[in-house]
Amino acid sequence: MSEWAILIVGSIAAGWVDAMIGGGGLILIPLIMAVFPAMAPAAVVATNKVAAVTGTASAAWTYVRKVPIPRKLALTYIPLAALCSGGGALVASLIAKEVMRPLVIVLMLVVGTIVALRPSFGQAKSEENPVMWRRVVTLFGVAAIAFYDGIFGPGTGMFLIMVFTGILSQDFLASTALTKVVNTATNLGALVVFALGGHIWWELGLTLAVANVIGAQLGARTVLGGGTRLIRILLLVMVVVMSSYLAWQQWG
């Protein structure tokens, strides 16, 4: 009971963090591994996806009720994200994490540099109808990030926010809302693949899902109360935390 209690509290914390800026998996996946060290890595990631997809979907629902997003574009991104994430999950075992981590660290530092050096980034009013080239480039960006989410995952939400902010010229709040919708699809695509492979511990996953929803609701309300300035601060903090964590995994 004490082990499950620790994981439930951890899942609430992961849902709270993930709803604000992404990165909840960095909390819950290591925690599951620590509590159940004999659990297979694929089962850990798969069980985490059960919690992640429900928490992210819950946060997405809260955001879209308060923040206007380009719904037609969102409906285009959802099936694309699910398919690409599922494809990434299928080939996950073929790409070594030691190869992915350095690339992700570099990309995160680029993200942090852009946000730090451009205070106006993410502050402009969102465009209602972005031009065609922006939509096409965003489609490729969403496909690549979703595929990455199925393979590895850390930083997915952050990268989606940057794509929607930088290419679609949206403010941070609208980008975060759209990110949660698309991230729900990426989690679902990978979850289906993991479920078909029989990797999920359903009792644990569904228990953690309830806790993750509670945390996600708290996180979404925190962001809606703080606005774009809070998201900018959280983005910079998450760049430092995630880059340090991945660097420790790689070279520590």
Could you provide a short overview of the structure?
The protein has 252 residues and is mostly helical. The chain has helices at 2-20, 25-35, 41-66, 71-90, 97-117, 132-151, 156-166, 172-196, 202-251.
Please, could you describe this protein's structure?
Pfam families: TauE. One of its GO terms (cellular component) is plasma membrane. It is found in: Cell membrane. Its main location: membrane. The protein has 252 residues and is an all-alpha fold. It has one domain (2-251). It is 81% helix and 0% strand. It has 9 helices and no strands. The protein starts with a helix and ends with a helix. The model has no long low-confidence stretch (mean pLDDT 88).
Total E-strand runs: 0
Total count of helical runs of at least 4 residues: 9
User: How would a textbook summarize the main sheet?
Assistant: none
Ends: how far apart? 32 Å
From the spread of the alpha carbons, the general shape counts as: globular
**CA-atom Rg in angstroms:** 17 Å
Structural class: mainly alpha
Order of helices and strands: HHHHHHHHH
Overall domain count: 1
Membrane topology: Multi-pass membrane protein
Transmembrane segments: 7-36, 42-64, 76-96, 102-121, 181-202, 230-248
Protein name: Probable membrane transporter protein
Subcellular location: Cell membrane
